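User: Hi! I have a protein structure encoded as tokens and I'd like to know what sequence might fold into it. I'm fairly new to this, so please keep things simple.
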């Protein structure tokens, strides 16, 4: 995930501290919930339903701080268990898990359990292989999850495709992703920084087109996807 050079939203502030030949940069991320700023690039801890695997909540404070204060969460993990209505009534992830000094970054997919399935994705929504089976997630459904979980940062829904697909399929993935970006922004709740998804498979031209379209929208940064399976 990458932020624009200077961003200020209700949940996040980001500023660049240094550049390296105009290609790499170092910055600082301020989240309202985190007690200290987070230097970037930074570690994004993978979680299962908001809790890091193999690390109990009581041991989280023993990890290096603030490097470990940003947690990646897949909203699709919560299709099992408590309903989104219940999570919303509790007060979102922070209240439910008791992790009040940690920031959550919500991305539809993860690297193991909730993987995109390009062959089943259509113009209505994105398809994922999940512990609940193969599911089609529509933008409105995804935004209901985001509204209930209340993460500090969240990536929009994307039509991810493998690197080997045709130019036509790459173009379609970008068109759908931009369409869903607009729908997600229109449905976005108050609070939380929006990160636009960048897709296009292995096509440099389509990835550039997607990035340009994302940059035209009111987003706080971008999240780049490529499925190498």
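Assistant: Happy to help. Inverse folding works backwards from shape to sequence: for each of the 229 positions I chose a residue that suits the local structure. Here it is:
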């Amino acid at each position: 995930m990458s932020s624009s050079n200077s961003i200020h939203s209700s949940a996040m502030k980001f500023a660049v501290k240094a550049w390296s030949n105009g290609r790499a940069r170092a910055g600082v991320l301020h989240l309202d919930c985190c007690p200290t700023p987070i230097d970037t690039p930074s570690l994004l801890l993978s979680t299962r339903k908001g809790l890091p695997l193999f690390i109990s909540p009581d041991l989280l404070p023993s990890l290096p701080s603030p490097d470990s204060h940003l947690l990646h969460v897949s909203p699709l993990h919560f299709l099992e268990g408590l309903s989104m209505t219940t999570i919303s009534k509790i007060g979102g992830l922070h209240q439910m898990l008791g992790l009040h000094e940690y920031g959550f970054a919500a991305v539809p997919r993860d690297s193991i359990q909730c993987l995109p399935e390009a062959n089943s994705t259509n113009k209505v929504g994105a398809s994922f292989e999940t512990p609940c089976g193969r599911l089609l997630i529509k933008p409105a459904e995804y935004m209901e999850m985001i509204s209930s979980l209340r993460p500090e940062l969240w990536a929009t829904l994307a039509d991810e495709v493998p690197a080997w697909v045709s130019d036509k399929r790459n173009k379609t993935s970008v068109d759908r992703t931009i369409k869903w970006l607009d729908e997600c922004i229109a449905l976005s709740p108050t609070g939380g920084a929006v990160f636009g998804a960048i897709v296009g498979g292995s096509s440099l031209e389509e990835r550039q087109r997607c990035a340009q379209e994302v940059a035209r929208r009111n987003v706080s940064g971008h999240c780049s996807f490529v499925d190498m399976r």
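A useful reference point when you look it over: The mean pLDDT is 87. Feel free to ask if any position seems puzzling.
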